[in-house]
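We close this part of the discussion by returning to an individual protein. Part of our work consisted of pairing the sequence of a single chain with a tokenised description of its backbone. What the numbers capture is local backbone geometry rather than side-chain detail. The amino acid sequence and the backbone structure tokens for this protein are reproduced below.
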Amino acid sequence: MSIAITSHVVDISPAIRERIESRFDKLNRRQIVLINPHVVIQKEGLNYLVEAKAGVPNDTLFAQAEHEDLYAAINELGQKLERQLGRYAEKPLAQRANVTQPIIEEDE
């Protein structure tokens, strides 16, 4: 999977790229295709702000995390994307459960 990683402040080292790719590999376990994943790393004050956007069929996932440690922010971002992908995967099941069943009246 090709992940676009951009940053104007932080140099993208191989270790940072490896961490981001490993978090996105965990997302692939659900076997849902991620379309054009893009990660943006920014530095605001003392904290790192990491944002990710990835398309899925008929929807888009977006998450952001902020932490003073870049690797902790990447992990938090990955957890948020995992939760969103889980909700996306379970959505058809939840909608199917809410469909009301027709009421059958018995003749007495």
